[in-house]
């Protein structure tokens, strides 16, 4: 392995790149301070340039990354598929892109991650868990904005009809051009200007680039269609008539929002409270790539914490305030600096993180991620810059994990203000609000509008309902105006192009004074949203290891809390006398609820250790000839260190329970129990 | 409440109905013994009559069922909705039939049921759990038979387009006619003959009935369309081209079958093994009814136990052989008898249950169901009669729970022989087989067919692949015939209407002898398939109670293993001195992973007990003035008995852990701890 460069030398190489970002970041900041219009071409150009410089810096950082931080992805994926952690779905039928099945190992890891998620968030924070339908009628996703805006641009091969995601295709082709040896400096500069703009391009801008560079299908070299938007939701039809259009949900969050009233009532009307949901969501990606990172069906775990927007303090913030977390703030990103390790309490005090509740969740996410096996050095929280944040959000931090695909967003944590509830209120007509007591009772003007259906019915028959509804829904000003006009005589109103003559007897309006004790408000929502598949992928990369003494021996250092099996039971050989002990120990472990594997196959003990290391089994119980003598005992071997201790059979359940839940560490046990040294240690047997 | 009739009197009433069934059952049996053709009109008529008599018997049994066995469903549903166990999805937008959301209580119960399912089946039996895609390409469901056969007949209101399930509509209208007072005896007999036939009717038969009885839409009285088949799967399109047709899976089983090879390999090639999957499935019911019993999206838990068809013994069968289980055999059903309590071992010995493995699963299902709270008196295993069983199945028993909707199938347990793997083998071309060692090595004839693409290519250019493939796939006989003809000279073959002249150099065939040690076979599958929503509904009905002293106090007697909260912490009053104890006990319980609720609201202690009984909280910890004195102690109250004991705070975690996992019972605790009698017991405070 080549000696990696020292951090100091790398920093020297990076410095000019950092400076270039900072200069440009300052320029953008200045323009913002001068309240420049965000559609101003100069401003747009400045943002593009900033992105370009940030990308150049990131590329350099990746290039000089120490070798031991990079992983052999092919080798890892080989292991993941060979031992069936996961694999492509339906591959006996040729497979479907973007769909994966978890095998026994992946499935057990997923179940353990979700169990810990439930314990860490739902149980410990007394959240309200719900389990809502995946099938979702159109109106709900119209309200959320997904029907109109959850789309990517795609281009089609005009002959074969094959589809490509337009931004990915343009980016790939521009980058290929950029790498051409004979590229002239003008062209180079032009492409470098274009690249960072792709993210914000609409169809016509993309079409211009495709035409200008005469881009073709990368597969057939045929011409491409113009870019068209493609909605990423899977559509279906609910019920037999074909009239109820529905989608598979693209996120679990909407199920919580539409249940807000029931949940608030369940919580006896009190705020704040959090609801949570674990479940599958679906996105019909145009051309899925990057393995488990971008898939069409995936498990999410989402929390919606509802809070009074005037008070976002959190009573338990102090319990996470001392955490030291890598934060990559918008201002770091603007100035070309790296992420910085910051004490969470300081980040909230200095207002770098908008409020205590958001800060509390960042801390809890950090605790969760590191507990399930994410390497804290490869975990950072990146703040959204104002230009990438949704207009309604007031702050947003993504938990990103460093993988061989780059930094990947695994958890989003956004303060979405009152956007979602407001939208559903608008579309459903239901009042999705909470109440807070007023400091003192208040007198308010209340409008009472009354439409008399019995009177209206005499004149208008079947139109009665339409007219009554129209009148009752008049705004305060319109109702007052109509009332005043009716005082003068009959008045014609127009509903959907039809005229109706309204009389004074049909309609009254009064404005009265009432005393109120409470006021209504729409709660804010803070939303931590976890992509379980991505977290698992990061866990695998962060824990994949190759034994220095043998390139073929690969394994995972996953924490015992998460591993599919907590231990393996191995008789030293096929000796008949060992068999009852295998049975006895297995029964003890089942009784204690400890998942385990039995390996009585004929391989050498070393080969069998190696097979169990591959699937991350953290401890091995070996039954040998000493086991047969009183006090009946076994050896317990640890996966990462190869170290073994000797313990009595009747202690084994308690010890493994402690190790699995983290109440005792291997290091502690090694001080309490005698180390076991094999009589005939060969290299293979370790 | 009216005094229920004694069992003896009821049995007297039922006797003639039982006899009528038996007489007819014997007639059917006799016809079968005489190998009558099953399409013979007389035989069909005999089966119909048998069904009719069975239904009359069931109706009588329901009619005379003791009152305490019936439940007030409206009252229970009110509680389930009011405390948000579940409710209709998207109801702020008017709701969608057949879609339900589980609220915090339903969701926690579901999570607990699934956790116990994992422990009971997957952990204890070392099953291989998988987690497969719900989106499924068409070919997979073509192979399984769902594309062609998973359909119901529906009729449409010709004016409004409203759809009805044809069999339900016909049945409802015939039953209404039957209840008319002025019905003449001929008509009555005719309808009674028709009713039991509906299940087996195809479209034209249904159309005849609809015409004959001039049936109309029950909503508008408009005419109805002819019955058409409606496939119950939700269709969607995968990827952007619209060319990959897909469905939402209608069951989880197929995901296991298509992964059979990987799973067998994971199990190192050994049989038997079981794979399991928990996940959602989807059925686009035409007109869902019966609340949670018939829904469009539901969670299943399925096991596929793969076994050598020549050996279906089970090594652990003895562990369940002594269970006494209510079995409702096909022969009981034919002879008008009730279900009978049978020792499981006897049922397998007498071949009533086809084999040990099937019997073992019936036993394990029984243990699971009763552990999660299903009443064993309301649980029976009903054997499919030969006319309702799929043609490939060799035995099938449904675990049915008695509810206010009648006996509802909650778990199916079928021996599906090798049907599923064979189908996927046929459609995918992959060999889905296992190997067993031969008793002795065997010599076999092996055909070696060789098509020489390089020679073929010289003559036929672009058709080479087609021809090569055709030749290689020739059957043994065709290959030998072609070989023989080529010995005589060139030979023309026909592929898709095109002729090709084949020469001796293009193709060889030989039949050679090989010695083999193993033989391949397609494993049989035994499939226990659980409908989680239905099981939960049965659990709720079986555990719903009304306090005799107060009709308004309703509660659930669910076992602590399953309840959302294991306990509630209640300070006797709002006294400031109690607050630190609430915090301290809550922290102890979180540490021990015990889910709990805190109720510091201002209601009386009695009202608060009642609120926690409603959501099935089995134990209440009350902090009172004695708590403040050393040794710090609290009262622990049990939900069903109202009994209270006094325990020390530092014992509380261990006690609740024991109660929740079932390692200690309330009865045992009552003998170990002093009973606590309140000083000022009022009725409300109990």
TrEMBL record, chains A, B:
Enzyme Commission designation: 6.1.1.14
PANTHER family membership: GLYCINE--TRNA LIGASE, GLYCYL-TRNA SYNTHETASE/DNA POLYMERASE SUBUNIT GAMMA-2
Protein name as catalogued: glycine--tRNA ligase
Keyword Electron transport: no
UniProt record similarity statement: Belongs to the class-II aminoacyl-tRNA synthetase family.
Source organism, top-level taxon: Eukaryota
Stored SUPFAM superfamilies: Class II aaRS ABD-related, Class II aaRS and biotin synthetases
GO molecular function: ATP binding; glycine-tRNA ligase activity
Nucleotide-binding in keyword set: yes
Compartment list: Cytoplasm
Gene Ontology biological process terms in this record: mitochondrial glycyl-tRNA aminoacylation
Cellular component terms per the entry's GO annotation: mitochondrion
Keywords: Aminoacyl-tRNA synthetase, ATP-binding, Cytoplasm, Ligase, Nucleotide-binding, Protein biosynthesis
Primary site of residence: cytoplasm
Subunit structure: Homodimer.
Residues annotated as domain Aminoacyl-transfer RNA synthetases class-II family profile: 214-548
Pfam families, per database record: HGTP_anticodon, tRNA-synt_2b
Top enzyme class: ligase
């Amino acid at each position: 392995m080549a000696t990696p460069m020292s951090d100091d030398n790398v920093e020297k190489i990076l410095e000019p790149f950092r400076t270039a970002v900072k200069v440009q970041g300052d320029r953008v900041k200045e323009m913002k301070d001068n309240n420049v219009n965000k559609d101003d071409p100069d401003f747009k150009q400045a943002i593009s340039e900033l992105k370009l410089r940030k990308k150049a810096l990131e590329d350099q950082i990746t290039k000089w990354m120490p070798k031991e931080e990079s992983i052999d992805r092919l080798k890892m994926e080989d292991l993941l598929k060979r031992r069936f952690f996961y694999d492509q779905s339906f591959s006996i039928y040729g497979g479907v892109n973007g769909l994966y099945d978890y095998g026994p190992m992946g499935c057990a890891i997923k179940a353990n991650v979700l169990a810990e998620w439930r314990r860490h968030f739902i149980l410990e924070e007394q959240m309200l868990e719900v389990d809502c339908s995946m099938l979702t009628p159109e109106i709900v996703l119209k309200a959320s904005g997904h029907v109109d805006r959850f789309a990517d641009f795609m281009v089609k091969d005009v002959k074969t009809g094959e589809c490509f995601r337009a931004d990915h295709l343009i980016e790939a082709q521009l980058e290929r051009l950029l790498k051409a040896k004979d590229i002239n400096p003008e062209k180079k500069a032009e492409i470098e200007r274009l690249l960072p703009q792709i993210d914000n391009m609409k169809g016509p801008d993309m079409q211009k680039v495709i035409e200008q560079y005469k881009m073709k299908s990368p597969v057939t070299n045929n011409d491409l269609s113009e870019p068209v938007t493609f909605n990423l939701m899977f559509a279906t039809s609910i019920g037999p008539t074909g009239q109820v259009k529905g989608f598979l949900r693209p996120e679990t969050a909407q199920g919580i929002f539409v249940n807000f009233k029931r949940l608030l009532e369940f919580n006896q009307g009190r705020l704040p409270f959090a609801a949570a949901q674990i479940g599958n969501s679906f996105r019909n990606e145009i051309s899925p790539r990057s393995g488990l990172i971008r898939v069409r069906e995936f498990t999410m775990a989402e929390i919606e914490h509802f809070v009074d927007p005037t008070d976002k303090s959190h009573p338990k913030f102090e319990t996470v305030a001392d955490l030291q977390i890598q934060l990559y703030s918008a201002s770091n990103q603007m100035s070309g600096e790296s992420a910085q390790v910051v004490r969470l309490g300081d980040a909230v005090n200095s207002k770098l993180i908008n409020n205590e509740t958001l800060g509390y969740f960042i801390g809890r996410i950090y605790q969760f991620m590191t507990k399930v096996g994410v390497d804290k050095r490869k975990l950072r929280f990146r703040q959204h810059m104002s230009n990438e944040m949704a207009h309604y959000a007031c702050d947003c931090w993504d938990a990103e994990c460093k993988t061989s695909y780059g930094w990947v967003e695994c958890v989003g944590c956004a303060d979405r203000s009152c956007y979602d509830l407001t939208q559903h209120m608008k579309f459903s007509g239901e009042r999705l609000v909470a109440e807070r007591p007023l400091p003192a009772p208040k007198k308010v003007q209340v409008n009472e509008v009354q439409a008399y259906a019995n009177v209206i019915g005499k004149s208008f028959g079947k139109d009665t309902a339409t007219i009554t509804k129209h009148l009752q829904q008049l705004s305060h000003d319109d109702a007052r105006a109509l009332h005043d006009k009716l005082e003068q005589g009959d008045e014609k109103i127009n509903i959907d192009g039809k005229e109706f003559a309204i009389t004074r007897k049909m309609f009254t309006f009064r404005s009265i004074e009432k005393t109120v004790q409470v006021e209504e408000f729409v709660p804010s929502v803070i939303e931590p949203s976890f992509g379980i598949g991505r977290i698992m992928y990061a866990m695998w990369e962060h824990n994949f290891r190759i034994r220095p003494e043998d390139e073929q021996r690969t394994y995972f250092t996953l924490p015992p809390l998460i591993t599919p099996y907590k231990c393996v039971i191995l008789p030293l050989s096929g000796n008949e006398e060992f068999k009852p002990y295998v049975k006895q120990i297995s029964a003890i472990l089942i009784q204690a609820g400890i998942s385990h594997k039995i390996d009585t196959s004929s391989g050498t003990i070393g080969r069998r250790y190696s097979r169990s290391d591959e699937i991350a089994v953290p401890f091995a119980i070996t039954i040998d000839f000493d086991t047969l003598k009183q006090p009946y005992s076994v050896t317990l071997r640890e996966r990462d260190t190869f170290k073994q201790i000797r313990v009595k059979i009747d202690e084994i359940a308690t010890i493994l329970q402690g190790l699995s839940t983290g109440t005792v560490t291997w290091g502690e046990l090694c001080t309490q129990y005698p180390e076991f040294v094999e009589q005939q240690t060969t290299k293979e047997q370790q």
